[in-house]
Amino acid sequence: MHPLSVVFMGTPEIASDSMKSILELRRANMIDLRAVYTKPPVWNNKKKDFVISPVSKLALEHDIDVRTPRTFRDNKDEADFLKSLNIDLIILVAFGLILPQEILNIPKYGILNLHPSLLPDLRGPAPIHCAILKRIRFSGVSVMALDAGVDTGPIAAQQKIDAGKDEYYRSLYKRLSLAGAVLLAEVVKTVFKFKLNMRECAFSQSSIDPDPFFTLSGLINTDEQKVDFFTDDPLEIYAKVRAFEENGGAFFIFKSRAVKLIEARLFADKTELGEDCSSEQEGKDGLFFDYCDYADLDCGLKSLGNDETEKADGKTDKRIPYIFNIPGIIVSANKSGLIISTIKKGVYMQILKVKPEGKNVMGHADFINGYRIKQGDECR
Question: Right CATH number for 222-370 from 3.10.25.10, 3.30.420.310, 3.40.50.1100, 3.40.50.720?
Fold first, then answer.
């Protein structure tokens, strides 16, 4: 059987992982990788140099022709080049450029596109961020036949991935990336074996009943990255920390300056929550309702209780001071931890790593010492 004539288009790490699986198919003589398209190099102010994409780096390591057009719209040269290759299939993963209909029509068996969500849920530019922000129990990857819409093409294959309740963006991104690479390779093998036109063989997304709450993932803006301990639910804050980890996007205001949250955890005091403290609850809609670790306050809070009440048996019972139940108040700032109260009584956020405005990433101890943080200070 003759190998498929293939062009690969992609830019970031998730695309390079998929391209590695495509290179394995090339070694197995299933495909003939004719060219690789990626975004042009970008200027890095810190390195004072242009930085090429992960896909470009991988392609150059394997002596593959790399092309970096800034657009395909009204780009006759690139359209003519692709037509000259007589290609069977285009494989696209997080490329970053829109392909006009003229390009969509070129490959004999269509264009395969990998999307890191279970389509039709979370279509759009930020599906992984939104999966964490919406606290979805399961995420996944989809391979679809690309059409002119935004992630609306017919689906060739999908794989569900469990999203851990404490999972950060980088971890979920990598797991979806690797799962997507395997799934994509399997679909390409199927095209190679049966010479299938993906436009005709995949099933329409309209046959799937989407959840309207999860349908779209929009661009992330600064307002969404802002954390407000006085109004935000603690689960929402924790989700923001994990979703925006890759660029330290989640931030709060301390002493009129922005502080980015790099790593944190939620925990709850069983004595304050009473019986409402099951370790994990999952709704029928697949959402996590409770991300908290239930602790015996070994993070430094227990020793801070200073209100003693006498029990009927004559023993004393230490209770959390009233100030600890005011949202946004630092209730512990010592070597044991930096702990902030939330709007939910008995639920606290332990800060592990931060990046203050104009500073490098630092652990909680350096932050406490450098900014002279003390119990009772307020975080907005």
Answer: 3.10.25.10
pTM: 0.85
Which region holds residue 72: left if phi is over 0, alpha if psi is between -120 and 50, else beta?
alpha
Name the amino acid, one letter, at 100.
P
Which tokens go with 97? 């450029």
> Is residue 293 a contact partner of residue 266, using CB atoms and an 8 Å limit?
yes
| pLDDT digits (tens), the chain, 380 positions | 799 999 999 999 999 999 999 999 999 999 999 999 999 999 888 778 889 999 999 999 999 989 999 999 999 999 999 999 999 999 999 999 999 999 999 999 999 999 999 998 888 888 999 999 988 888 999 999 998 887 888 999 999 999 888 899 999 999 999 999 999 999 999 999 988 777 776 667 766 665 655 566 667 788 889 999 999 999 999 999 999 987 778 999 999 999 999 999 988 776 665 545 444 444 444 444 454 454 444 444 544 444 444 444 444 444 445 556 789 999 889 877 899 999 988 889 999 999 999 999 999 999 999 999 998 899 98
Determine contact, residues 93/114, Cβ cutoff 8 Å: yes
Distances (CA, A) of 249 to 66, 210, 244, 246, 352: 32, 29, 5, 8, 15
- Count of CB atoms within 10 A of residue 50's CB? 10
Q: Where in the chain is the domain with CATH 3.40.50.170?
A: 4-207
User: Checking DSSP bridges between strand 362-363 and strand 66-67, what pairing results, if any?
Assistant: unpaired
Alpha carbon of 27 to those of 30, 82, 151: distances in Å? 8, 23, 30
Contact indicator for 54, 11 with CB cutoff of 8 Å? yes
88, amino acid identity: D
Second-level CATH architecture of 4-207: 3-Layer(aba) Sandwich (3.40)
